[in-house]
Amino acid sequence: MSNLLEVRDVSKVFHTGGLLAPVAVHAVSHVDFAISADKPEIFTVIGESGSGKTTLARMILGLEKPTSGTIAFDGQSLVKPSGAERLKFMASVQPVFQNPFEAFNPLKKVDRYLESTARRFLGLKDKAAIEAAMDGALQKVGLSLVEVAGRFPHELSGGQLQRVAIARALIPNPRLLVADEPVSMVDASLRMAIVNLLRALRDDFGVSVIYITHDLATAYYISDRLIIMQKGKVVETGPARVVLDAPEHAYSRLLRSAVLDTADAGAGNLKTDPELAALAAGVSSQQGRLEPRADGRSVRVY
């Protein structure tokens, strides 16, 4: 079985504090996983702010270099790719960012982004071919070129603009999307539309997705496999339903307990278990090791 993406023992250390008081911040510590090339999947990275999930996404996209470890796509290392390899990688691995209104210049019409993507990655020059590629990608996300042509970002809703962002990412026919919190800036009523779109991309078009989120509810709904990160380390990993139905690590259990239960809505009983919170905080600075379980998950033990 070949791998589409391999992340092997990857770490990222940032140095802050200046010359007099240098501080090493371990944003990502020894993360290891792979995504198969043979079966598209939604692989989810879960964690609170500061867990390292966005830094991990930026390294996969080539926007940050790992301090140690290797990242390879389709067997090619991403550490020092050549110009041709870099362009091929950028076509195959496309990002979808958190806030669509920050991803688009407010003074630039959105169809110009689609056009430039078609020209750069598909090498198209004929106007009809470019428009066909643009419209084809928009159709995949439930829009059309007629709906967005000539419109500025502020003339579209947040949900529409996020779908345009996904359509732009789909123009080069990528094999992998890296979606960093793609529903956190979208109205609650539109979140499921975006989440269902990601599922459709997997099921209908064979695109694998790395889904970065802190939202366990959407992760439970769409994920095939997942990792849960705390302070840069993976504390639990495995099949999504196995892990989220009965999380084992203290931090995973703490995240699970914080999910709102509609049966208790308005009763004011949502409280963090102080013992569980203390246990999760107590192990956050320890290295430990991932230990496999019989149900397919791995859990960090100390």
Q: What's the β-strand tally?
A: 12
User: For the CA atoms, what is the radius of gyration?
Assistant: 20 Å
Give the neighbour order of strands across the main sheet: 6-7-8-3-9-10-12-11
Instruction: Indicate the CATH architecture.
Output: 3-Layer(aba) Sandwich
- Cα(first) to Cα(last) distance is 32 Å
Q: What's the helix count?
A: 12
Q: What is the helical fraction, as a range of percent?
A: 25-40%
The low-confidence parts are: none
Number of domains: 1
Tell me the CATH topology: Rossmann fold
Structural category is alpha/beta
CATH top level label: Alpha Beta
Instruction: Report the average pLDDT across residues.
Output: 91
What does the main sheet amount to? Answer: 8 strands, mixed
CATH superfamily: P-loop containing nucleotide triphosphate hydrolases
Task: Report the order of strands and helices.
Answer: EEEHEEHEHHHHHEHEHEEHHHEE
Shape: globular
How much of the sequence lies in strands comes to 25-35%
